[in-house]
Design a protein that fits this description.
Strand 28 and strand 29 form a beta hairpin. The chain is α/β, with parallel strands linked by helices. The radius of gyration is 23 Å and the shape is globular. The longest helix has 12 residues. Helices cover 23% and strands 28% of the residues. It is built from eleven helices and 29 strands. Belongs to the bacterial/plant glucose-1-phosphate adenylyltransferase family. Its EC number is 2.7.7.27. It is an enzyme of class 2 (transferase). Involved in the biosynthesis of ADP-glucose, a building block required for the elongation reactions to produce glycogen. Catalyzes the reaction between ATP and alpha-D-glucose 1-phosphate (G1P) to produce pyrophosphate and ADP-Glc.
Length: 421
């Protein structure tokens, strides 16, 4: 996508700071070994690749990533897949773990503290604008357009915003705005969220994306750090202060979201539960999915493993390697197995006479003979025993695996090891 000159200039003056330390505890065992931003998505990507790709595609090539919770998998991914920046071009990706940089604190105490603890590093780089991002959402957005709005409106802070159903708004920071998108009120995760003007069924929610002029941000962070009553959080401290004492402006996601010709409406997902993770991945197998990851004008960059193409073998009744309405990644071998509406990550092996429907299989999972799986998420490296049946007996499934209320089963190797087969 070609950016206009002014937007490109502003993006070149900006730095992206990605908050990627979240536990993602609602993903249960899927985040026992990795943080939420390091979770797999879409067959070959990680969740954090979307924020990183948005930054690079927007023309922002100075990036910091703050890590904290079980960060090894995430750091390894960043080192392997995001090492193409060139210092001589004034571009970089800095990995910034919580590392006892200030006083005696080890962990980042909140979202604003994660930036405050690295303020000396950021000041040494000298960006004019800071784009603060969450590293755990799925979407495509041109941040340069958001920076441009920030400059043109003279805002102290610009907040990316999306419309959500009022019953879901309590999970977000919620804004009340006037007709010019000036924020009149900001409440973090309210029990009774304010609705949008003229539409009591919807609320305007924060995406966790903020744009500041850097100098003002540094001043705010130092002021917040000196406040003994702060929670060191953007949504609870920094943003409400600026709404009351400065100029805070909402930026509608629809103004800068990236859509190919196939995407009918803005796409933004928080895949923070097993159900949401399964659904967002399986949705990609639709004939025309809501998210177009095949858009070469806005590529989702990631670490590309060296793998051969997927392979389908055997062609006899009941033992035919086949996939219908499915996505199968490199290195997979479908050996006499039947797939329907499945998404297989790199290196998955499916053996003869097995069948899968609505299965999300993370890298290098193996499904042995005669297994029958329906509506399942299989963690990385899990070996499904021969003959295992999941998705037909809800009571038995709930006894052996983690089963959600909607019927999605999460299977990990530790759960398999406990089976009496």
């Amino acid at each position: 996508m070609k950016l206009d000159r002014e937007t490109s200039r502003l993006a070149n003056q900006s730095m992206a700071f990605i908050l990627a330390g979240g536990k993602g505890s609602r993903l249960q065992e899927l985040t026992e070994k990795r943080s939420k931003p390091a979770m797999y998505f879409g067959g070959k990507s990680r969740i954090i690749d979307f924020a990183l790709s948005n930054a690079v595609n927007s023309g922002i090539r100075r990036i910091g990533v703050a890590t904290q919770y079980k960060a090894h998998s995430l750091i390894r991914h960043l080192q392997r897949g995001w090492s193409f920046f060139r210092e001589e071009r004034n571009e970089y990706l800095d990995i910034l773990p919580a590392s006892q940089r200030m006083d005696n604190e080890v962990w980042y105490k909140g979202t604003s503290d994660a930036i405050y603890q690295n303020i000396d590093i950021l000041e040494s780089y000298g960006p004019k604008y800071m784009v603060i991002l969450a590293g755990d959402h799925i979407y495509k957005q041109d941040y340069g357009l958001m920076v441009r709005q920030h400059v043109e409106t003279g805002a102290d802070v610009t907040i990316g915003s999306i419309e959500v159903p009022i019953e879901e708004a309590s999970a977000f920071g919620v804004m009340k705005v006037d007709e010019n998108d000036n924020i009149l009120e900001f409440v973090e995760k309210p029990e009774n969220p304010p609705s949008m003007p003229g539409d009591p069924t919807r609320a305007l929610a924060s995406m966790g994306i903020y744009v500041f002029e850097s100098k003002l941000l540094y001043d705010m962070l130092r002021q917040d750090a000196d406040n003994p009553d702060t929670q060191n959080d953007f949504g609870k401290d920094i943003i409400p202060y600026l709404v009351k004492h400065g100029k805070a402006v909402a930026h509608p996601f629809s103004h800068s979201c990236i859509r190919s010709g196939l995407e009918k409406k803005p796409y933004w997902r928080d895949v923070g539960t097993i159900d949401a993770f399964w659904e967002a991945n399986i949705d990609l197998t639709d004939f025309v999915p809501e998210l177009d990851i095949y858009d070469n004008d806005w590529p989702i960059w990631t670490h590309q493993e060296l793998q051969p193409p997927a392979k389908f073998i055997h062609d006899e009744e009941g033992r035919r390697g086949q996939a219908v309405s499915s996505m199968v990644s490199g290195g997979c071998i479908i050996s006499g197995s039947s797939l329907n509406r499945c998404l297989l990550f790199t290196g998955v092996k499916a053996h003869s006479f097995s069948s899968m429907e609505g299965v999300v299989a993370l890298p290098h999972a193996e499904i042995n003979r005669n297994a029958e799986l329906k509506n399942v998420v299989i963690d990385r490296d899990v070996k499904i025993p021969a003959g295992l049946v999941v998705g037909q007996d809800p009571v038995l499934d709930a006894q052996r695996f983690r089963r959600t209320d909607s019927g999605i089963c999460l299977i990990t190797q530790s759960m398999i090891n406990k089976l009496d087969l």
